[in-house]
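Hello,

I think I submitted the zinc ion job twice by accident. Can you confirm which output corresponds to this input? Input:
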Amino acid sequence: MRDNPPATKRNDLIASKPRGPAVTGAAFLIALAAMVGCRTGRPAAAVWPAHAERVIQSGPDTYFEYDLDADGRLDYVQRLHEGYKDRLYFPRSAGGPPREVVTRPASDPSRRPLLVLLLDGVAYERMRGLYDAGRFRLFRPPARLISVFPTLTDPAYDVLFGTGPTPGYEAEYFDRAANRLSDGVGFYLRGGNERWARYTDYRLNFLEDAVMYLTPRSVYGSELRRAREVLDRRLKAGAPSVVIYLLSTDAVGHMLPPAEIDVELARLDAWVERTVYEWRGQIEIVMLADHGMSAPDLAGEHLSLWDLPRVLRDAGFRVTDRLERPGDVVVPLFGLLDLARLHTYDAATRRQVSEVLRQRDEVEVLAARDSDAVRVYTKTGAAVVRCCTDGRGGLLYSFEATEGDPLGLADACAALRVAGRMDAAGFASARAWLEATGEHAFPAAPPRLWDGLFSISREQPDVVLSLNERFYVGSGVFSRLTRLHGTHGGLQRRATETFVMTTSVAVPSPCDLPAVRDHLDREFGWEPTPRR
Ligand SMILES: [Zn+2]
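Support: Only one job matched these inputs. Its output is below.
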C-alpha cells in the first residue's frame, strides 16, 4: 500500500516546511499533465461488451459468441468448459468466420509471453465472489494467498521478488541505529522503500499517488490504459514477460464499499478479456495482490481514527522522535492502517506500554519483541512465539500459550502434533502452520509474527498492534480529507487474505508468496529481473 500520499503526511509540522506546499503543487500539476498526456494515445479505452452477442449451451459446455466490430458477423467465440475458457476461436483472415482455435491451457505455458499483473489491496473474498459470478473465467479459480505480516505492500512484494529485507514497514520508519525517523516523504518519492518496484515494467508516477486517494476511479482508469500501452510496447519488442503493478486498486479498496469495488474489478476482467483477444490468445497471465483489505459492516459508518499518541501521553509516556530516556516512545504514523508500531526506550518501557495497550478496546492483538521471542497478548490471553533452525537451512516456529488461547490455535496445534508435523518442543514449519491455519482468523500467525518482528524489515519495532476492524491509525490531516471503508496492515485474516490466479496451472491453495514465486518459476520459467 501507498496509503499516505506524500503531500498529506502525518505530522502537522510538515505543512510548515517549505517543501510541503511545493510537493503538493508539483504532484497535482504533474498528475494532471500525465493524465492529459495519456489520453492522446490509441483508443485503448475501447469498451469490452458486457455480454456476448449470443450464448449457446452445448452439452456441458457454453459458447460465448461475439461480434466485436458490430458488422453483423461473429468474429470471436469462447468455449467455457468446466468453468474455464479452454477454447478461443479467431477468424483466419479479416472478416472471415472464427475458425482458428487456440487451445488452453497451453501444453507448455512457458513458451507464451507472460504478464505478471500485480494488484494492491484486493481481498480474496472480492475475487472469489466475482469468479463465482462468472467473471475472470480466462483464469483458473483464485487460490487463497496468505500475505506476510505486516500486511503492507513493500514487505510483501519484497518477498515475491527476493529484494528484502524492506528498510521500513513503510517509507517513514524509525531507524534505531541513527535514533531518528526517516524522511518519510523524501524516501517515499525516491522509491527508497520499494526496491521490488525496480523489477516492474510499470508503476504509477509517484507524484500521482497523492491524487489517487482523492479520485480512485479515474486514476484506476488511467492506470489500466497506461498498463496496456506498456504491455503492448514490451511484447512487440519481444519481451518474454512483462510485470505490471496497479497501485490504484488499493485506493479503490480503501475508499469504496464492496459493491463498488466489485464494479471496478469487473473493469479489470474486461481489460483482461480485451488484452487476450487482441493478442489472439497468445499470452499467459498471473494475477495476484499483495495483501487483503478489510470490509467491515459498520451500518453505513466509516472507520474511526484512533489517536494512539494521545492515549500514550495520557498514560504518562513521552511520544517523541528520538529515544532518550525511560518512558520514551516513537510511533511512526504514515499510512491509514489497522496496524500501529512502537519503538520503546528500554525493556521496562516496552512492558509498561504493553500492559496499557493490551487492555484497550481498539487493540485486537499486541505483539512485543522480547530478546529472541515474540510475546503475544490479547485482552484475555498470552502466548510466546519462538523460532529455530531445522538443521537443513529452514526455519521452525512454535506457539506456546501461557494464558488462555489468544489466537485460537489450540486445536491446530493438537492437529499438527497428531499429524507428526510438530516436534516434541512444539516447533513446526511455516508451510505446516499455513496448511493447518490458512483459513483461521489469524492465518499462519506464528511464522508471520516472528518474521514480521525479526526478519522481514530492517525496522524491528518493539511493539506492534493489530487493531480491531473499526479503527485505524495514521495521518490526522489526511483522515480529515477522507473517509475509509476498509484498510489493512494488521494480522487478522481480513487484512491478510488475498488471491493469486493464473490462466494456466492453478497455484495450490492456500499458498504464501514464496510458493507463488516457486510456481512462477516452475510453470512459466519466470524469475524476477531488474528492469531499471
Ligand atoms: Zn493500502
